[in-house]
Amino acid sequence: MRNKFFFSMSGKSDIWNHFIKKDLGALGGTCKYCHQEVKTKGNTTNLRNHLLRRHPTIKTVDDTTLDIVPVPDLQNVDNSDTESVASSTASTSVLKQQTLTSCLTNIKSFGDNGVKRGQITNEIVFMIAKDGLPLNTVEKTGFNYLMKVVAPLYKVPARTTITHMIDDKYDILSTQLKLKIQEVEALSLTADVWTDSHNSQSYLVLTGHCIYENK
């Protein structure tokens, strides 16, 4: 079934407060938050959709609403489709503009020693270690494209940086484990042999079982 749409807007939209208009005669603008160029077709629909999709926490300060009412193509619709279309309604999203301070704080959090940068980097390290992924995952084209979409301001660390971080994590966790083992009274050991499917190398694994009481 093909649907046609008509739009109704009330009030004056402030969507352009979030974009930098292009030169006179050009359609579209540049987002002030992620610097992505968004093309328009004489209205602000694409601009609003960009904010909803890429910056859902941003809300506009005006009372403008955009109602999208689906109109069925009566030439290619049966009774069941007509009932479905008649009962469906479009949701209205309200946007709120961020303050300049919050925008600058958000940008700074992705810089060196930033909070969000540290959180994302730690999760990447966890993902590589947990899933046994190769260290060059951060160099893959697909991975970098994904990060560019979900976190445009984030700079993916180099492979050597990830390697050093994993080594540091190993040293910290191994030290913590050794301290815990020193507190147990008995330790039951089992041994097993397994082969790594990636490089066909065999390993002897020693597993320890104990009852640990956290005092």
SSE topology:
Layout: E1 3-10, E2 19-21, E3 29-31, E4 37-38, H1 45-54, E5 65-72, H2 79-87, H3 100-109, H4 115-131, H5 141-150, H6 159-181, E6 188-195, E7 202-209
Antiparallel strand pairs: 1-5, 2-3, 3-4, 6-7
Helix content: 25-40%
> Care to count the β-strands?
7
Q: Assess the beta-strand content as a share of residues.
A: 15-25%
Order of helices and strands: EEEEHEHHHHHEE
> What is the rounded Rg?
27 Å
Q: Enumerate the spans where pLDDT stays under 50 for 5 or more consecutive residues.
A: 1-12, 61-93
From the spread of the alpha carbons, the general shape counts as: elongated
Number of domains: 2
Q: How many helical elements?
A: 6
Structural class assignment: alpha+beta
Care to describe what's here?
It is built from six helices and seven strands, in the order E-E-E-E-H-E-H-H-H-H-H-E-E. The protein is of the alpha+beta class. The strands form three sheets. A three-stranded antiparallel beta sheet has the order 2-3-4. It has a two-stranded antiparallel sheet with strand order 1-5. The protein has helices at 45-54, 79-87, 100-109, 115-131, 141-150, 159-181; strands at residues 3-10, 19-21, 29-31, 37-38, 65-72, 188-195, 202-209. A hairpin with a 7-residue loop joins strand 2 and strand 3 (29-31). The chain has two domains: 3-98, no CATH class; 109-185. The longest helix is centred in the last third of the chain and has 23 residues, at 159-181. This is Zinc finger BED domain-containing protein 1-like isoform X1. Its main location: nucleus. GO terms for molecular function: DNA binding; electron transfer activity; heme binding; iron ion binding; zinc ion binding. Residues 10-62 form the BED-type domain.
